[in-house]
Each structure stands twice: as structure tokens, then as C-alpha cells.
Amino acid sequence: MNWDVLVVGGGSAGLAAAVSAAGLGAKTCLIERHGFAGGMATAALVHSICGLYHLTDGAPGAYANPGFASHFADRLKECGGASGPVRLGRVEVLFHRPVAFAGLADEFLEKAKNLTIKFHSEMIAASPTLDAVEISCRGVRETLTPRTVIDTTGDATVAALCGAGCEMVEPARLQRPAYVCRLEGIPPSALDDSGRLRIARIIAHGVHSKQLPAAALGATFRAIPEDGGLFATINIEDPDGYDPLDPACLTRLEMVGRKLARALMEYLRGQDDGYSSLRVAAHPVRVGVRESRRLVGRVRVETEDLVSGTLPEDTIALATWPMELREKANAVTLRFPEGNRPCGIPLGALRAHQPETLFAAGRCLSSSHEALASLRVIGTCLATGEAAGIAAALVADGEAEPTAAQIANHRDRLLAHEYC
After folding, report:
1. Per-residue pLDDT tens digits for 178-223
2. What is the CATH number of domain 2-171+291-323+335-416?
3. Strand-strand pairing, 28-32 and 115-119
4. Distances, alpha carbon 21 to alpha carbons 3, 18, 161, 320, 355, in Å
5. Which CATH architecture fits 177-282?
């Protein structure tokens, strides 16, 4: 089947790319391996949208990227699926409920004309020029013939399959993954800040007394006041060596995450009568991989660009989140830009050298390892996905070299019509 734009991967970037491309009239197809869109924000239960706001020294920050990112965030708040922004130190985040994110994503996808969604589908093969792409759903194969393709897989899967340039930092430096689960049966006293600190002290004692594994020490908790629960986030490590592209490693991480969640639940239930009803209510569909393979694009966003706040002429989105380096499971380093300046993400970082019909957005766009520690967050993924969707639609329509000005103009037009 022929398509103007094929979007591979329905995470935050893929959602924005598909809706934006279809909004320009491009015949668009979105394929996603799960049964819903959202990626890290839904399947991995990552419940905070980072990178939406400009950095400030205390005053509330304005949206960094007008367009799909800000519009989706506003709609999420309007439907009761998000609250905030909430200031955490020097940054602001929008806390959301993953189930609400998935529901709102469905609304955007259903509203979009010219868009076909294929859930439970994965890309399994591609020609070097991407004029033939094979996908599979439950063993049933289908060949698509797109004019342009957007890689929003998070792992640069399209780029790898068609032979475009890819890179991945050595395993020892990769950002470590997170395992997020939902807990219920929490007493009201555990839902405020002091209650969460108390849980942290109990866990620290459990690790010190060797009743809990050391990996539990970095667990953090966020209350869900709407329904009396908690999200628990555990940064995990693979004792046999981390490789986010290795099925054996991914299998171990999923099992380690579930085992840690059970251990935490059982230990807390045994420490205090107030936690006797505690239970794990939901595991993620998949572990939250923060970094893997990336496209080698026409332009590479470098670490110094983030530090100094570089603004290239072909900027299509702004990165405002600090470089959040998690190269060890229980250690985080935040590197902020000079003067809280935003960094411009150039269009060239979203486009391959060859084939020229390949674009990338989200966490597999072209960047250094350190720069990706800022660019990978959900708010920025929404913005780069939108830009990639517009650029791919323009190329499919015959515009060989779309410009940042064209992308901005079409973004504003889409926003005015709410992407229908």
C-alpha cells in the first residue's frame, strides 16, 4: 500500500509526527507495537512530562514550544489527566496519569483525517531506499511503499534496518533504565511529602539491614491524590551488563523490576500496620529505556550546544531540560545550561544523510550521548515529533529541502485548527 508518510513508533514523538503529517493532508500511516500510543508516558508508566517549560530562577516558566507539545499539555490538564506545572528545585514538570495520556492520544488519532493507525504492528525489514517497508502483526506480513519515513522507535530501528548511519555510546555510559509501577492501599498519611520521606527512611533501613536489595535504595515515590495511590520509580541495573538492544538483557530487566517491586511491597507491609494493605496494582508494559541507538543525521546536537544555548538558523524546537545523566542506577547528575538558555534543535538533526526520505525524532534523533540526556524527555519529544511530521509531509509533497520557517508556519496553522 502506498503512503506519503510512514511513522514507525507511536510514542510521544510518533504521536505528534503522525497527527501533524496527517493534518497537512499527507496520507499517513502510524505503526506501533503496543495497543495504544504514548510510549514511555503510557507503556512505561513515566508519569511526569519534562521539557515543556523554559528554565527560570523561580518565576513560573512559559511553554518552550508552541504547537503540539503545549496544546497536548493544555488538553491533558483540561480533561483532568494532568496537574501542574510543579516546581522541583530548578525545573518544572507536568505530572500526569498515564491512562489519561493514552486516552487523549486516542482522541487526537481518531480526529486526524488522512491517518491510518496499525497497533500491534512492528517494522521487520526495509529496502535501503525505504521505498519498500515490511511490517508484521501476529505473523501476518504486509509491505508498505512510503514516500517518506519517520523513525520514532526510540531505538533507531528504521535507520538500522535500512542501513542508515547509527551510533550508540558504549554500554557502561548508557543512561540506566527505570522501572515504574503503581502501588495502592496506601494510607492517607503516606500521600504527603513527610509520608514519602518516611517510606524512604524505612527503605534505607531495609537496605542497610540487608532485608532489601541495594537497588531498592534509589526508589522514589509520587502520590496520586485523585485515587489514593503512588507511583514507585526504581532505577535498575543489569548485573550481567546493560545492552538495551539485547533481548536477554531486556528480559532480565523486566524480571528484576518486578522482583524489586514485590520485595518493596512485602517489606513495607511488614514494617507498619498502616501499610498492611499495600499492593502492587500495575506493572508497566515495558521497562523504561532512556537511551539506546541514535540516527547519525545531517547535523549532530553536541554537548556544548546544550551548555551554551546554541540557536542554529534552522531551529525547529527548543530543548530546555538540563542534561540529566543517569549513567549509574542510583546516581543522577544534572548539568544546566549557562544562564538557563534554551538550545535550538536544528532540522538537520532530524534528517538522515541517506536515504533523504528518512527522518527521526524523539530519543533517536542525531545527538551526542550527553545532549540526549536533555533531548530524550517527553516534552521535547512531542516538539521534535511535530517538526519531523511536518517536514516529512512537505518532502512527500515535493519540497526537497523544507526550511525551519516553513515548519513554523505550518505548525501555527495546525495549532489554529487544533490539528484536525
Report:
1. 999 999 988 777 777 788 788 888 999 999 999 999 989 889 888 8
2. 3.50.50.60
3. parallel
4. 11, 5, 23, 25, 19
5. 2-Layer Sandwich (3.30)
